[in-house]
């Protein structure tokens, strides 16, 4: 039973809706996680590049996990509830009932997921308008944003969905509406994925130009005309850890949220335009600061894909189960065995991966790019699987370095990474990010730090803290810090050169095949 020496009776619930599951935590005023629950959620892929979910399923999962973590607690002691969720598009009719986003007419599946790439033709047309709002999404709108998906619905599901629709929500905003009955949208959602400006609001000319003038004529009631600021901040106290960002402005920190995908969040006092990196978004994350969001569309999903698709996967599963380990803990210890005297990262001297199996989100903003592997051999054993897994993890870290370099070239000055999300539980993933970027990686004391972040938002909403900064200072603490192995730098610099060549070559192959 929660209690101990913390201030009695004040708890917060954080709910994190990821791509694969919903998690909830009960957190106290010090940010200590007292109870945790998770629940898998359904996903449908009715055809290639169409990814759908159900808002009813997701809400039911939120209720299940929330009830589990508050069990035994007097509900009056729950002071606040915070949500974070993927930026998937939820569609409801005028009576708030789910509408189908698919040709089958299955209204249960009323969410177009963030990683859905069905609206390719729509996003090309949007980008061809060269409208000024595109400057604020890295110059090129992503197929994963909401405008192309909305246009797809209008063009493809006019009668069954578009004409009946009353409400289009970003998933986090759907959740806060379900929890409170208030349809106000988060500024963060609208600025990051819907082209809303914190300073100027909606731009009528954009919606008219792309053929969605319907929103303008009804004063944006379907996509949100009441907007509230979010409260997140990057203000964790880092004193005493020997970090370069100590005593430096928060703009020297890059937060990387690593789950199914990875999101790279950097802030600045003045707007910085980074080609291929989303933003700058004013006040979308930290009030008064501009946010740039780099990203990799598939990271955890890519690692799972590479490992599960390998011929030695059944053997891996059997051996990990026999040792009561996760497959990744097993693979990490297997790599330690086979590396012998050399650093583990050196096992991939002749195996290189380009990680854009689902297109490149940043910094190339090219959804046509594909994955590449070079250095394959005629072997299918566990060693081979482990080394391919390592090369994949490294490729993702090189992708982060590529994004950081683009951000720095445009004016950011980043010295420290803060990692969270499921992949931050993987020590190999963390060490490779440190070694390959050459920057220290800070992990939160609480492993489920995304949930603590959501609970902090709930804590702020409760009024128990005077500001987000105060709540952050009290509830968020530095845990492990992983420093780069600087002696390996030369090796990773060479691998990075190969990494950049891979995409150059891929573009050459495409040009050859197009007969240019
Ligand atoms: N302990 C762990 N060790 C290694 N990988 C992990 C661990 N926990 C989660 N992951 C990986 O993290 C990814 C999912 O992260 P998560 O934050 O749960 O995703 P999402 O928010 O997208 O649902 C998956 O690829 C999973 O394999
Ligand atoms: O684009 C996004 C955020 O800007 C997606 O919502 C996010 O990448 C998905 O999150 P996760 O990988 O944790 O499921």
Automatic annotation (TrEMBL):
Pathway: Carbohydrate metabolism; pentose and glucuronate interconversion. Residues 11-212 form the Carbohydrate kinase FGGY N-terminal domain. The keyword Kinase applies. InterPro entries: ATPase_NBD, Carb_kinase_FGGY, FGGY_C, FGGY_N, FGGY_RbtK-like. GO terms for cellular component: cytoplasm. Residues 254-461 form the Carbohydrate kinase FGGY C-terminal domain. GO terms for molecular function: D-ribulokinase activity. It catalyses: D-ribulose + ATP = D-ribulose 5-phosphate + ADP + H(+). One of its GO terms (biological process) is pentose metabolic process. The keyword Transferase applies. Its EC number is 2.7.1.47. Keywords: Kinase, Transferase. It is an enzyme of class 2 (transferase). Belongs to the FGGY kinase family. Postulated to function in a metabolite repair mechanism by preventing toxic accumulation of free D-ribulose formed by non-specific phosphatase activities. Alternatively, may play a role in regulating D-ribulose 5-phosphate recycling in the pentose phosphate pathway. Can phosphorylate ribitol with low efficiency. This is FGGY carbohydrate kinase domain-containing protein.
């Amino acid at each position: 039973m929660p209690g101990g020496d913390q201030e009695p009776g004040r708890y917060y619930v954080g709910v994190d809706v990821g791509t694969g599951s919903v998690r909830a935590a009960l957190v106290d005023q010090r940010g200590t996680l007292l109870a945790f629950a998770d629940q898998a959620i359904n996903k449908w892929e009715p055809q290639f590049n169409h990814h759908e979910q159900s808002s009813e399923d997701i809400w039911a999962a939120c209720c299940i996990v929330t009830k589990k973590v508050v069990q035994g607690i007097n509900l009056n002691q729950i002071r606040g509830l915070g949500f974070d969720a993927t930026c998937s598009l939820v569609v409801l009719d005028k009576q708030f009932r789910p509408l189908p986003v698919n040709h089958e007419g299955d209204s249960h599946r009323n969410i177009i997921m963030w990683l859905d790439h069905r609206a390719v033709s729509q996003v090309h047309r949007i980008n061809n308008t060269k409208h000024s709002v595109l400057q604020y999404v890295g110059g090129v709108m992503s197929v994963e944003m909401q405008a192309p998906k909305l246009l797809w619905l209008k063009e493809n599901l006019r009668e069954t969905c578009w004409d009946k629709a009353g409400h289009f929500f970003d998933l986090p905003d759907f959740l806060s509406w379900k929890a409170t009955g208030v349809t106000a949208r988060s500024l963060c959602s609208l600025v990051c994925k819907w082209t809303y400006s914190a300073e100027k609001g909606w731009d009528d000319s954009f919606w008219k130009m792309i053929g969605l003038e319907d929103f303008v004529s009804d004063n944006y009631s379907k996509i949100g005309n009441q907007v509230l600021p979010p409260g997140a901040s990057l203000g964790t106290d880092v004193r005493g850890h020997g970090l370069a960002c100590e005593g430096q402005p928060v703009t020297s920190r890059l937060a990387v949220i690593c789950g199914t995908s990875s999101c790279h969040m950097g802030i600045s006092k003045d707007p910085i335009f980074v080609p291929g990196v989303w933003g700058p978004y004013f006040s979308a994350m930290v009030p008064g600061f501009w946010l740039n969001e780099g990203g990799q569309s598939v990271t955890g999903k890519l690692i799972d894909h590479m490992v599960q698709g390998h011929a030695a996967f059944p053997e891996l599963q059997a051996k990990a189960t026999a040792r009561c380990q996760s497959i990744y803990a097993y693979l990490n210890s297997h790599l330690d065995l086979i590396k012998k005297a050399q650093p583990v990262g050196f096992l991939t001297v002749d195996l290189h991966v380009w990680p854009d199996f689902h297109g490149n989100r940043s910094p190339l903003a090219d959804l046509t790019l594909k994955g590449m592997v070079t250095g394959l051999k005629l072997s299918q054993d566990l060693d081979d699987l482990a080394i391919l897994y390592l090369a994949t993890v490294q490729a993702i870290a090189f992708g982060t370095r590529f994004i950081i370099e683009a951000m720095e070239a445009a004016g950011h000055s980043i010295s420290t990474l803060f990692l969270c999300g499921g992949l931050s539980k993987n020590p190999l993933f963390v060490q490779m990010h440190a070694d390959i970027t050459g920057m220290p990686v800070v992990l939160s004391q609480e492993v489920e730090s995304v949930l603590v972040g959501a609970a902090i938002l709930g804590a702020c909403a409760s009024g128990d803290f005077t500001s987000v900064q105060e709540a952050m200072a009290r509830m968020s603490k530095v845990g492990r810090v992983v420093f780069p192995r600087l002696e390996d730098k030369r090796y990773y610099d060479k691998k990075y050169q190969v990494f950049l060549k891979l995409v150059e070559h891929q573009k050459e192959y495409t040009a050859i095949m197009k007969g240019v």
